[in-house]
Every structure is written in structure tokens, then in C-alpha cells.
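Quick log. Single chain, no ligands specified.
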Amino acid sequence: MSQVFSDTKSTSLAVALFAVTALAFYRRVLRPPPTPFWGEDLALLGVTRDVKYRGTAVVCGASVSGTLTARICADHFDKVILVDSPGQAKTRSYQQEHPHAYLIFMLDVLARLWPSFLQEAEHSGGVRTPADFQIHHGGISIPAPHKAFPSAKLPETILLRRATLDALLHRLLFRHQSNVKRYLGTVVRLNPSQETKRRLGSVVVRSTDGVEEIIEDPALVVDCTGGLQAGLKWLPEAGYNLADNLRTSYDPKTRYFTTTFTVSDELKGRLPIPGGYSQAGAIYGFGADVTYGNTGFVITRMDNDTILVCCFGWGKFDVPKTVDDIIQHVRSVQGPGKVPTWVLELVEILSSEAQHDCKYLRLSPCSFIKYHTAPNIPSNFVAVGDSLLQLNPAFGQGCSKAAIQVTALNALLSRPHRPSYLPDDFSQTFFRRSAEYLEPVWDATKAIDYGYPSTTPISGEAHSKGAFIRWYMTQVMLAAIHNLNVSLVMFNVQMFSAPGTSLISPSILWSVGSASLKRFLQSISSI
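-> predicted structure:
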């Protein structure tokens, strides 16, 4: 085990010394974890405001983030218009055929907004399953903390393809929220209020027939245009000066090749899946270990008797071009662990016998628009989802990140305010709060991406930035293999059920340092 993840003697001793030092100076050096909003704020979801804000909330974009935002706004505003742009619909379809992970936090949010969500998802063909994503870092199993939960049952997730989820959320929204109306068209521009530039005074939309209409005096305007990040265009055109460096970006050069296999009843009984097809959820995930290579793959069940096999990598690698190339990719991944024989057999059977559809995807660069640093954002403008922060989809956090933002938005809207206008500091407060919770996620995933030399970093940054985060997370994963408490905390952080700072609490630092010291002592005793 001393060689796993390139765990050298020097780094093992260093992490042990670091843990002891950090414990001694914890209260003076490290801030305690912030009070998690997901306890107090989650309870506010789905609660209709007694006296709603007068006027219309305009949600620009009908992706997952837009649909969730419209659902939140329905509880707080007299009327909600969800502008569904044909252009953005094409963007959504671009990623619909590739894997999506829905973390525990997101499932909690969805169940509070629509109590029947899980049942409706099952009726749509979704697979309810424990949230064990079968993670193997470099081929080494990082076990989920089943024993830490009552009856050893993890909280559930749902396995759904993105297209199925989009359709389900739209059905739920328009079935249950009667004050939400869909507008097929595109937001053309925003105009400031004639009374004060601190507010947006109108939204100009163009229908699919080319007719422009004006929505006067919007109570709230939400940019949910995803990767288009249209707010960066709309606000300057409306006279709001934004700094040139407000948007920061880097390119991990990640690519996917995803094959969707349709599994027949006859084939289900012959697939060599441990426990059988009917009990399967996420089947196997090989996470890339930068020390050994830059490729990995994921195999998972999805809705309506499908299995997705996604081959991915950073930078240059032999991207599969046909279904016949998948098995070679699975065999070629590198790490301290080996791909099990049954996984290879499963891929071979699917590739040769199941109906399939293949899709290639070059992922967009990652970006963060730091609206929280801009001094003159209109008080009734916010951005949710990828229109604010684009993470690397390889980490499976995109939809859950949007759930964090709508939870924060709902909490702010739930505060006592005048029913006429939102407070002058509403936008700034929202963006500051979003940054408080999302910047650590941005920093952590960026640190992992920077471990690959092929990544183009942010201007002025080097690949070495985040090296300590990469190193420490390796130590945490190693400790989690044998320590249930470390495994539980890491699981909760990954699921957005706890803040990332939980991983540097005194007890976790002690456990990680002790495990590293033990490996170090074992390594020198074997010399």
C-alpha cells in the first residue's frame, strides 16, 4: 500500500508532521467551518411567501438551473416568466447524452421543491439507488461509508439521463406552479430603470416568430443562459461597466466519448455485474490518477434500461471513435490498481451485443464570473448555474452546484422585505453568498485539473497552484480506505452535504496524519 498513489516516505512523514502542527495551532491559524446554510436554509425551500413581491420575475433560460430558479421564484413573486431560448435548447442537447451525477444535496432540494420527485423520476424510468458511485481512484476502491448510516443504507440518488431529467422538471414545474408561464424566445437586451440605474427597468425578448416584446419593471431578472453567460453581454450594453477581468477562465482540455447501450431483457441476465443487473446502480468508475495517467472511464445504469459507458481524459489521449474502441480504452487506463476482469467482460458483451449510440464531446473551458467583486450590478439581477460558474463536468457537480445557488437565493427571498422592490443590496448579497460557498469548490476542482500539464491555466497562474490541495486529498483518500469517519466526512463533502472545511477539522487532520505516519513506519520497517 505504500506505493499507492505514489505515497512516498517523505510525503507520508510530512503529512503526519503537518497534522500534529495543525492540531496545535488550529484555533489560531484556520477558520472554523462556516455554519452550513443547508440546515437552516433547506427548511425554507417549498415555503410560499405570505405576501409575494409585486411584479414579474424573469428567468432567462430553461435549463436545470433555470427550471429550479423558476420554481423558487414561484413561491415569492406574483408572476414568473421562464424564457426558453431555442439556442439554449441546442446547448442543453449538446450534453444530454453524457453522464450526469445527482448528489445527495440536490436530491434533498428536489424533494423539498416537489415532494413527489423521486416517485415521478421512477415513473420516468429512473433508477433509485444508494449514492455509491463505485469510485476507484487509479483502480483503488474508495469505499462509500455504508456502515456509518442506519441499517448500513446510504442516502439515495436517482440515475437519469439529462434529457429525461429536463423533461421531468418541466412537467413538474408547469403542473404544480400555476403562476409560471413559459415564453419561447430569446432575451435580446436589458434596460436600466428610468428612475434609478441601480435597478433594471425592462427586459426585451424576441419570440420565435421574430416579434420583440418588452417586459416592463421586472421584479427580478435571472441569467440562467448556461455557458452562453449572456449577462456579460447584456449588462455592458445596458450601460453597466464591468471590469475586463471579471470573468476568469482556464481550459482542462477534457474530452468524453460516451456510448449509450440499450439492454434487452435477454441480455440483462448474462451481464457479469456483481449482484446482477436488477440491483445495479453506478457500476464502476475508474478515476484518473495524474501520477500514472490522464484517462478514466465510468460505467453506470441510467433510465429506461440503458447503460452508459463514458471514456474520458485530459489533454492528449487516444479518444475512442467507435464502439469497438471502448474496450481498448478501458484496458489502457493506468493506475496502482487494476481493472477487474468482470468489467472488461461487461464492456465486451455490451459492445458486441447491445444496441448502442455513440457521442463525442469536447468540454468547454471552465470559468467563474466574479460578480461579487463588481460594485455596480443592478440590485434585481442575479446569475445562477453555469452563467456564473462553469466547473469541469468530469467531477459531476454541475446540477448540484445550481441547487446550492437556488437554495441561497430562496433564503434571501424569504427574508422580510417590502413587497414592492428587492433591497438595494440584494444582488451583491446573493453574489457574495454564492462566492462564499462556490469558491472552495472552484479552487478544489481547479487544483485537480492543474495537475495535468495539458491544462491551460488562468493567466498569471502556474500548474503548481493547488499542489498542496492535490497532495492532501490523496492522503485523505488513502485514510478513507480504512477509516470510517474519514470516509464519512469525505463522502459528505463530495455530496455537498458538508462544507469542504470539514476535511481540515482536528479529528480528520489527526486521522489522516496518523494513517500517513503508520504507512511511513511500515515502509521503513520493510527495508
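The CA atoms of residues 262 and 355 lie 5 Å apart.
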